Amino acid sequence: MDKISIAGLFLGLAAIVFGQVLEGGHLASLVQPTAFLIVVGGTLGAVMLQSPLTVFREGMAMVKWVFVPPVVDPDRQIAEISRWSHIARKEGLLSLETHIGGVKDPFTVKGLQLLVDGSEPERLREVLEVEITAVESNLRAAAKVWEAAGGYAPTIGILGAVMGLIHVMENLSDPSKLGSGIAVAFVATIYGVGAANLIFLPVAKKLMANIARVITLREMLVDGLVGIANGDNPRILESRLQGYFA
Amino acid sequence: MDKISIAGLFLGLAAIVFGQVLEGGHLASLVQPTAFLIVVGGTLGAVMLQSPLTVFREGMAMVKWVFVPPVVDPDRQIAEISRWSHIARKEGLLSLETHIGGVKDPFTVKGLQLLVDGSEPERLREVLEVEITAVESNLRAAAKVWEAAGGYAPTIGILGAVMGLIHVMENLSDPSKLGSGIAVAFVATIYGVGAANLIFLPVAKKLMANIARVITLREMLVDGLVGIANGDNPRILESRLQGYFA
Amino acid sequence: MDKISIAGLFLGLAAIVFGQVLEGGHLASLVQPTAFLIVVGGTLGAVMLQSPLTVFREGMAMVKWVFVPPVVDPDRQIAEISRWSHIARKEGLLSLETHIGGVKDPFTVKGLQLLVDGSEPERLREVLEVEITAVESNLRAAAKVWEAAGGYAPTIGILGAVMGLIHVMENLSDPSKLGSGIAVAFVATIYGVGAANLIFLPVAKKLMANIARVITLREMLVDGLVGIANGDNPRILESRLQGYFA
Amino acid sequence: MDKISIAGLFLGLAAIVFGQVLEGGHLASLVQPTAFLIVVGGTLGAVMLQSPLTVFREGMAMVKWVFVPPVVDPDRQIAEISRWSHIARKEGLLSLETHIGGVKDPFTVKGLQLLVDGSEPERLREVLEVEITAVESNLRAAAKVWEAAGGYAPTIGILGAVMGLIHVMENLSDPSKLGSGIAVAFVATIYGVGAANLIFLPVAKKLMANIARVITLREMLVDGLVGIANGDNPRILESRLQGYFA
Amino acid sequence: MDKISIAGLFLGLAAIVFGQVLEGGHLASLVQPTAFLIVVGGTLGAVMLQSPLTVFREGMAMVKWVFVPPVVDPDRQIAEISRWSHIARKEGLLSLETHIGGVKDPFTVKGLQLLVDGSEPERLREVLEVEITAVESNLRAAAKVWEAAGGYAPTIGILGAVMGLIHVMENLSDPSKLGSGIAVAFVATIYGVGAANLIFLPVAKKLMANIARVITLREMLVDGLVGIANGDNPRILESRLQGYFA
Asked: Fewest beta carbons less than 10 Å away: which of A15, B79, B160, B199?
């Protein structure tokens, strides 16, 4: 549970709400369904138009990582690689086959299987790097859904503001409607700029940070498996792997 | 048929239209032929000035990919490469020649021909990579026509807005014309910002995502052909190729 | 003669002019010598301050490429390289010396001379790549003069606008001068934003596209000469070179 | 003690304060707790939402580097490496073991230990480079907390400005509240733009400059250790290392 | 003496001054000490906060390069390298030692010394490349002081503008002060935008262009020394070096 992110989300929104109250304004004036429709509909439309379906879905699903980051436990993985390394040294690479069964992560299984099959170290690295590159590119594409939303929201907010101002202009002769038109205009700006800066862009950045950790863990795993294939000294291998999360 | 993109396009435009209606505005006030002329003419002019003719045409034609993405079926291609790999192992590389006839894609034909000609694996890769690089660069140039339009449209919209405001200033003494001048000004902004954010930029991003898939498929193909030339074990080759779309 | 660029230039400017007419405005109000002086003088001054003289001159001269692109004929060059390749195979590299006389481009002459001198293929590539890198960097620097102008013009336009507004403020008590001050202000914005988006930036992009073709042609030539030095099979060499403009 | 940074911080803030006084304005009008709450709360919220906890903490702690930069003394390190190099040449690599005890920096200890263990030079470099890459990426992530704050603050300032303007609009009928609303609006802009440009962004840049020095020092160390492992001539090694901070 | 830069600087400033005069405005209204204090003080403060002292000083000193560019004479250097190359071929590398005395540039001395010491060509290149990288990074950091100033100035100008507008708001009841407040506001914008676009950013770009030439000259030198170490044919070496400034 990532408490700093939850705290950050609430702090950002609370600053807006309390700011409004402290100024003596009504909270109700920050609630404008029309402005909400324009900003959310427009931003969502733009994001959906630009995203392949699988990327959009993965992007939506990935938002859970903001509050519950994916498990990245380098120490545990180093211990495991170290254990495999000792086994391989004592009993040979083939003996690792009996340990594959206990592994859940399919990527690790694939790597161990290649190791057991006796792939050359460089081949092993190439095969696994191809997959890491593809996985990283997919994960980043999903996180960029939020980055894109953070890019579109403020301009759609301005679109809503200009629409509100047109409404104002058309009713210049009826000053009673003037206030509400300007309110929609300004609230659309607040929705667009606020959603982008207090939610979408920080979420995208947080997801990118998580992705970097997930990918570094995989790169450490590949380096470890290649080290085992090379018959590296387990102690040096461990020292090397510890560098990845130094 | 890419339903999410069609839905996104309609959702974005609908948000604007319904927003206008909900605010009690007339839809007609969003229709300003002069603003349309300035924004569309100016943006199109800028894009045509910057684009070589072939790039411009390819960019226009490529818009179909937004709704009907190019077929990228990695499983089918892996199966095919795997089949060729088995044939080459059993009957030799030369025996692949009889299979070239059934292939339609000229790039695949070129690769198979080089394979049959007995090119060295590294040479094979180099020759095909040169072409992939050129193809990718052409495709991206075509998609960037939309990115450029997304860059020009908002500033041309502001140009139209300023022209409308000049008109307003010249008629300050005639308040009856004031409203219409400001309307053109604001609607030009809406056209420019809206076209860029609800259409041009998302289209460019969608095209880029499609291009990435097309190019990755070709890179997988090259990797497969090089693997066949190297006499790689078909099972490991397959496992390696599956990494490209992991 | 690049018709699409000429059409684009006219279309962009025509959209502004007709937009002004359709709105019922006077074309004359778009003509403001003071605004023109500020925008053109300021932009030109900034560009001259930032550019070494040779780069500035080359940038100005290069604008002809927008309408008459440099000749890039890959098919002809491939045919020529192919011819050299056959000659070299039949009669030896030295026999190419007699063909150097008929070549006009000094870069091609240099490459052929190195070939005839019996340079090692890798050396040949290195020597020519150094020059390609320098040429590309010079050409891009020249094209960036236009990119820079496109970056400065809108902000100088805003500068002119603010100067106009100061003038307005100083004459608030004399409303008759008010209109003209605001007009200069707005027209300066139009000049700055319009020049950047309808001329400078598209010109820079067009030049960059032409430079890419020129450089790719040279890279193809180098690849061909290296292939001849390596004694590559002419048919495979041709197939390889065709990839550059695929 | 980095006097230029302290001077810069005070100069920037003093320019604002004296500017306000010289214009004949009250300093008190620059103090608006509500605007402060919105800008600081919103910016802090966005930064916390986007940062993993460890990165956020390290970013906060790193601010001390602005005024007391980390010690980077290339001459001392070159002298030390040179000393080790002479020892290794005279008495063998193993004899360095007795010198590890006097070294405090764990990274240097790790490098020396690998040297003493007789790791191959290329291996030594790889192991240490992995750690440098990880350390650099962590340090930069921490510094980017300030860069991010510099990105969010101005837009949150505009958010606060728009909220102030809404407040103004709601009280158009009560002109006595008009001034205070606009003041909050404008002061929020000043806080956001000022904090970003006079504090956050320069701090981020200063931290990045310090990080570059720290990392270059480590790269020099690695190069030195690899040189010792290669048995390089101490004089040439020294000349080479001096290039890192030329 | 770089006349185009001097002309550019005067042209840019003259365009502003004449523009003001042509509009019938008073030059005096462009002179606002308070606005000057805010923009210059704020920008200088931000730049000093972000820069290590040595970088700041070097950036200030480097401004002379805008008008008197550093001497970069490739022809003379090629002739010199060619001479060394002939000497080395005839009399051996050691004979170059007597020529080191006449060389002033310490970098060239270092390179020649390494050559005379009989360093391996690849080692020679590595040692010198490390230094070139460091020198380039220092020079670019110094030039970026101006780039940074060009980034901060416009936003500090806006800060000054908003402060002026606050002043106006506080004196709405006293219309006589209104004009002066708005003037300060607008002039601060002019100072910020003008300084950035007519001075700081072009200066930064000009410095970068000079740095590129200085560094390319050094890279040519390194390539020449490596060529001598390799015993390259002087004529081919010369042809190769000429490519660097083609």
From this structure: B79
Share of chain E above pLDDT 70, in %: 96
Cβ(E115)–Cβ(E228) below 8 Å: yes
Query: pLDDT higher for C167 or D42?
Result: D42
pLDDT of B25 higher than 90: no
What's the pLDDT at A176?
67
How many angstroms away from the CA of E131 is the closest CA of chain C? Answer: 20
Compute the half-sphere exposure of residue D41: CA atoms within 13 Å on the CB side of its CA.
22
Residues of chain B contacting residue A152, judged by C-beta atoms under 8 Å apart: 197, 201
E159 phi and psi angles, rounded to 5 deg? -55, -50
- Please answer yes or no on whether D202 and E40 come within 8 Å at the CB atom: no
Longest dimension (CA), chain C: 91
Neighbours of chain E (3+ CB pairs under 8 A): C, D
Alpha helices in chain D (DSSP H): 3-22, 33-50, 53-62, 64-67, 74-91, 97-100, 106-116, 121-170, 175-194, 201-229, 234-242
Rg (CA), chain D: 26
DSSP-assigned letter for residue A69? P
Q: Please state, in angstroms and rounded to a whole number, the distance separating the CA atoms of residues E195 and C156.
A: 11
Alpha helices in A68-120 (DSSP H): 74-91, 97-100, 106-116
pLDDT tens across A39-69, in order? 999 999 999 999 999 999 999 999 999 989 9
Whether the CB of A22 is below 8 Å from some CB of chain D: the reply is: yes
> What pTM value is reported for the model?
0.94
CA angle A178, A184, A189 (to 5 degrees): 130
Structure tokens given for E93: 């590398």
Residues 106-165 of D with CB under 8 A from A: 110, 114, 117, 119, 123, 126-128, 130-131, 134-135, 137-138, 141, 148, 152, 155-156, 158-160, 162-165
Q: Rounded CA gap, C12 and E213, in Å? A: 38
User: Residues D125, D127, D132, CA angle at the centre, nearest 5°?
Assistant: 85
All residues of chain C having their beta carbon less than 8 Å from the beta carbon of residue E192 are none
ipTM summary value = 0.91
Q: Express the helix, strand and coil content of chain E in percent, nearest 5 each.
A: 85, 0, 15
Under 8 Å between Cβ of E197 and C156: yes
List the Cα angle E238/E244/E246 in 5-degree steps. 95
B in contact with A (at least 3 C-beta pairs within 8 A): yes
Assess contact for A15 and D42: CB atoms under 8 A. Answer: yes
CA-atom Rg of chain E in angstroms: 26
Instruction: Using only the alpha carbons of chain B, give its radius of gyration.
Output: 26
Is D163 close to A14, i.e. CB distance below 8 A?
no
- A97 contacts chain B (CB < 8 A): no
The verdict on a CB contact (< 8 Å) between D49 and A9 is yes
CA distance D177 to chain E (A): 12
Residue E176: its pLDDT value, please? 67
In the chain, the amino acid numbered D95 is: S
Structural contact between residues B179 and B212, judged by C-beta atoms closer than 8 angstroms: no
Whether A8 and D44 lie within 8 Å, measured CB to CB: yes
- Is A42 in Cβ contact with B22 (below 8 Å)? no
Residues of C within 8 A of E243 (CB-CB) are 127-128, 130-131, 134
- CA gap C11, B44 in Å, rounded: 8
CB < 8 Å to D3, chain E: 53
A residues 201-230 closer than 8 Å to D (CB): 201-203, 205-206, 209-210, 212, 216, 223
Considering only CB atoms, A18 lies closest to which of D37, D47, D159, namely: D37
Nearest to B49 among C186, C206, C236 (CB): C206
The minimum CA-CA distance between E8 and chain C, rounded to whole Å, is: 4
- Which three-class secondary structure state does DSSP give residue A73? coil
State the amino acid at position D97 in one-letter form: E
